[in-house]
Design brief:
By secondary structure, the chain is an alpha/beta fold. It has helices at residues 18-29, 83-92; strands at 10-14, 33-35, 44-48, 58-63, 77-79, 96-103, 109-114, 120-125. It has a four-stranded mixed β-sheet with strand order 1-4-3-2, with helices on one face. A hairpin with a 5-residue loop joins strand 6 (96-103) and strand 7. The longest helix has 12 residues, at 18-29. It is globular, with a radius of gyration of 15 Å.
Length: 127
C-alpha cells in the first residue's frame, strides 16, 4: 500500500430504513445519493456522489440483512466547512446532536451526531 495515500478508500453506513436514511443524509449534507447495483439477499446501496481520484474516501448507505445500524462501531467523520451547520441540520432532519462543536487543537473542530437510524457519526471542520 502506498503510504502517501489516505488509508481509507470506502465506507459503508448500515441503515434499517433506506428512504428515511437517504432523506436524512441529503438534508444534512445537501448532496444527492446515487443508487448502486442491488446488494445480494434483497439489500440496497446508495452512494454519496464522489469525485474519481479526488481526496477523501467515498462511501454509501447500505441496507442489508447481514448488517444494521449501531452505536459504538466504526466512526466515520464527514468533512464540513463548519460542523455547527451540519449538526444543526442533522437535528432538524430527525437526528440528534450528541457532542456539539468542540475544538481539537490544531486539528480544528468536531461534532458528533446520531443519524436517523441510530448510527453515531462524526463531523470535522477546520473552523
Amino acid at each position: 500500500m502506498d503510504s502517501a495515500v489516505n488509508p481509507v478508500g470506502w465506507f459503508e453506513i448500515y441503515v434499517a430504513d433506506m428512504p428515511r436514511a437517504r432523506a436524512f443524509y441529503t438534508a444534512v449534507f445537501g448532496r444527492p445519493l446515487v443508487q448502486l447495483s442491488e446488494v445480494g439477499e434483497g439489500g440496497e446501496m446508495f452512494a454519496f456522489q464522489w469525485v474519481e481520484g479526488g481526496p477523501g474516501a467515498a462511501g454509501a448507505l447500505v441496507r442489508h440483512p447481514m448488517g444494521g445500524p449501531a452505536k459504538g462501531g466504526t466512526m466515520v467523520y464527514f468533512s464540513c466547512q463548519d460542523v455547527t451547520n451540519e449538526a444543526n441540520r442533522a437535528a432538524q432532519a430527525g437526528g440528534r446532536i450528541i457532542q456539539p462543536k468542540m475544538a481539537i487543537g490544531q486539528y480544528g473542530h468536531i461534532a458528533l451526531i446520531e443519524d436517523s437510524e441510530g448510527n453515531l457519526i462524526g463531523l470535522h471542520s477546520m473552523q
